[in-house]
Amino acid sequence: MASQGVNVLRYSALVAGLVYGAYHQSTINSHAKAAEIEREYKRKEALIEQAKQEWKKKTAPQEQKPEAGGIITDPEDSRFDLEAFLNAKAAETSK
Q: Is residue 68 scored above 90 in pLDDT?
């Protein structure tokens, strides 16, 4: 049979291993939770950034492309040129 000293060492090593295992497992779990929180934060941050970009696209003034011939026919447009518009209409009617 094993002596009492050897049994004390065996059980001491067993208890120390169990304590270390519990500590190590809690450390791993806390790191995993922190990583999950960080991933969720980055995901929400990306969604917010995407929403900001979509909002900018939605609220940005639509750039009107000039029609054929480069003439802007909308009189409300700041780039509207009355003389160029009248010349284009005169050219159309003379055809």
A: no
